[in-house]
Amino acid sequence: MDYFMGIDTGTFESKGVLVDGQFNVIAVSVHPHGMENPHPGHFEHDAEAVWWHDFCAISNDLLAQSGIDPGDIKAVGASALGADCLPVDEECRPLRKAILYGIDARATDEMEQLTELYGPEQIKEWYGRPLCSSDVMPKILWVKNKEPHVYEKAHKFLTGSSYITAKLTGRYTVDRFLGLASFNPLYRKDGTPDEVLCGPICRPDQLAEVLSTIDIAGHVTAQAAAETGLAEGTPVIVGTDDSGAEAISAGVLEPGDMMLQIGSSVYMFLCTDRLISDDRVWREEFIIPGTFDISAGTNTAGTMTRWYRDELFADALAEEAKTGTNAYEIMMRGIEDIPPGSGGLVTLPYFAGERTPINDPLARGIIFGLTLEHTRAHLYRSALESVGFAINQHFKIFREHSAPMNKIMATGGGTKNPLWLQMIADITGEVIRTPENTIGASFGDAMMAAMGIRYFSSYKELADLISEGPSYTPDPQRHEVYQKYQSVFDELYPATKDLAHRL
């Protein structure tokens, strides 16, 4: 019997899946973990204690649950939150905690320094937009400027998936999809480091080797086998970031397919047949050869609902501990009875600054329109609606470029909340679909691991493995009401931007 393993590392948890040759799920394992916030705008993970620890624990757990012979696993795929900046030494030992993806906004000075060095027009030519907190180049420069002792010892600057694959195989790789976009412009289009452009940032040899996502990066080493329980010599693909893997798991396989990932943040991929440039969003080559994507990401979704849970719904946590009912389910009580617009409340969900479409790490959250009649249920519904308004801003940008959105598949933890998905459908006016299999990125990792050993001949064959679950159709009347609140949402940030910056 043939088996494939996929393991994904996210912001607050890691998840792994073991599937058989027909892609039936044999075992699933989930390990929660924390995220460190040592200073305002700084977000970190301990790569050894979180990323590698979780991978090993999940791998061993999947093998124990299934009872299969590790030698029957034909290939392994790993994804991780991206794009991060992790300097490691020659033994692949982290030299500091990993600087996380776009939620980490520490490198604002470096962004200004690089924009001044190269000029805004050159930056726009490279990125299609200004520099933002999702770009790795300013983060590497931050290490060089602020922690020169770390920089001098850095053998490689890795992202999450690169680190895990290196720990498994001993080879430092990054896939084209993640590497050419997030480390732009340090690589040429052929994937080789650009010695001239690397000059002010890092040495060319400090960058990982660029390969395709499903290329075999190497094979499980004896040391990795001892720690993970995998068989020595098991093929390991290069892997990618969590959102790319989740997009594959949701069936984003051709132009017009879209993934709406509602997790700790919101991340969205719309597969396109051409490169679309817009200052407000991102674009790159997609994982599927010959396609591109227009993509975007907010900084908060689940991180904001977690804040509401921890700070305003302590009783829900207490009830969860007592009864086992999930605190987030408890928080939804009475939400459905509140009309669209939350009684005249509009929230800006910029609790950790914001990535697209405003690209402002200094943006701040706002709860606007408070009256004495509002309850915490109104506050929470408004927070959920704010995520829908933020998503809709991006959908409007996609429509401006006549980029078809033929199929929108929602994934991530947010899909556990049907009312939230209905809000998003009503706000955007689009049908929101969900996959029947909600495992997510780790399932996509297993699919791509199978592609890596040519178990499938083309990505199109993966479509047969993906069945749809519930879908959410917009209500025309609620959509009309929400359009009025959308206009307030759209104007609220520009009207308060200067005040937020003064804070």
Helix-strand layout with pairing:
Layout: E1 3-9, E2 13-20, E3 25-32, E4 44-45, H1 47-66, E5 73-80, E6 86-88, E7 98-99, H2 108-118, H3 120-127, H4 136-146, H5 148-153, E8 156-158, H6 160-169, E9 173-175, H7 176-182, H8 195-198, E10 209-211, E11 216-219, H9 222-228, E12 235-237, E13 240-241, H10 242-249, E14 257-262, E15 266-272, E16 282-285, E17 292-297, H11 302-312, H12 314-323, H13 327-331, E18 346-348, E19 366-368, H14 376-400, E20 407-411, H15 418-428, E21 432-435, H16 441-452, E22 468-472, H17 476-502
Parallel strand pairs: 1-5, 5-13, 9-10, 14-20
Antiparallel strand pairs: 1-2, 2-3, 4-7, 6-8, 11-12, 14-15, 15-17, 16-17, 18-19, 21-22
In words, what does this structure look like?
The structure is a single chain. The protein is α+β, with helices and mostly antiparallel strands and 503 residues long. It folds into three domains: 3-244, ATPase, nucleotide binding domain (Nucleotidyltransferase, domain 5, 2-Layer Sandwich); 251-300 and 394-417 and 429-474, Nucleotidyltransferase, domain 5 (2-Layer Sandwich), CATH 3.30.420.40; 302-351 and 362-389 and 477-502, ATPase, nucleotide binding domain (Nucleotidyltransferase, domain 5, 2-Layer Sandwich), CATH 3.30.420. Helix content is 38%, strand content 20%. The strands form eight sheets. The protein has a five-stranded mixed sheet with strand order 3-2-1-5-13. It is globular, with a radius of gyration of 22 Å. The mean pLDDT is 96.
Task: Quickly describe the structure.
The protein is 38% helix and 20% strand. It has 503 residues and is of the alpha+beta class.
